[in-house]
Amino acid sequence: MKKDFVDEIYNLAVESYNKDEIPVGAIVVKNNEIIGRGINNRENDNSVIGHAEINAIEEACRFVGDWRLDGCEMYVTLLPCMMCSGAILESRIEKVYYLCDRTNVCFKTGEYIDTIKIDDEELKKKYLKMLQLFFENKRN
């Protein structure tokens, strides 16, 4: 796991936040190179599948010219939902590194894909603060 990749997903989450989207950032990595980036764009594109993970997977598929992402890993700020976990599984991404757990679901992502929690407490606190601020602003 590279610190640069962890910083990149946080920066993508900030980009998503600045576009008034739920702040999630994701990248797909192959051979230590980022081949796909994604942010949430559900609201701006009116797309139910506009999740950061899906967008990163689609960009990575275009990069390699195939839907199979063998030998790839994903880094994401938030543990993937059921839909994204399915796409990760189907695309054959081997590992998913994530910064924060989800608290609002009973689906167990780790039962289907290989997940590894990123050990960066300082960045996790910054990210959680951004998430909380996003939802607080939506309630006001």
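the 2nd protein, sequnce then structure:
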Amino acid sequence: MKTGIIYCPNHRPFTSVKKRWEQIAAELERQGVEYDLVQSEDSESVERLVDMLINNGYDTIVIAGGDSALNDATNCLMRAEQRQRDRIAIGVIPNGVMNDFAAFWDLDYYDIRKSVQTIVNRRVRKIDVGTISYRNGKDEPCRRYFLNSVNIGLLAAIQSLRQQMRRRLWSRKLSYAATLLMVIFQKMTYKMSYSIDNVEEYHRVMTLCIGNAHGYGQTPNATPYNGLLDVTVVRQIAMLQIINAIYLFLKGKLLTHKYVLPYRTSSIEIKMKTTTPCNVDGHPIEAQSDSVNVSVLSEQINFIVT
């Protein structure tokens, strides 16, 4: 089998891009992995490189990157023919600012050995892919696929801030908590309605997360192989309640908060103002229509799991 690795450099503090790759390369050599290496420069280059590997007959494509890079690879693969998707398996070596989807499979940024061993074992599982449909500023229909989550409202607004914190703090949870603490003094709520199973709800919402996986801790029970999406709606919360919500989040019990509404569904329609922030696996999108539709496609791609 032909294995191609796309290395997506991540500029973390106290970490050399070159040294990081040397550590990964050394472990690949130690475990006897034969591969061809290409390096991305940006988001667009990831999709171009994945397309190149697909067309050149590679059976295993490994993304040495984070959630955004995996999202780019997934979107490229979903545009390929079904016979190509059935042949190719996607793997990951966590190397991003955010590695939430890798963390779902118990893969850690610092445990290179385990990530490489997972590639060597090549245990493949069919996983679900989420999809969001919307219209852009030119009123053109758009579709974006995702593995982890869609976030609308507060979390989307602070996503870039969290990426900055993640570069400065070694812990994923600490970076998340620090980001939340920096924004709790800002008024950031959004009027929106959403329809699930033909039942429409209207709330003033702080954040709404639609998770195919853990959704950065907001959809902790979601799994990308049950054909369903988990939805977590955090309604407007008073200041003291926000502190309690952060505590519950760090304990993995966010869904027990009285202002948090959890759902499980195969599709959801959200109506909101066009100025409401929205991102897909860390990628911001500009949904210029007042309605977006999110659904799940069951067992779409082969993913290398632990």
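The CA atoms of residues 128 and 298 lie 4 Å apart. The chain has a mean pLDDT of 88.
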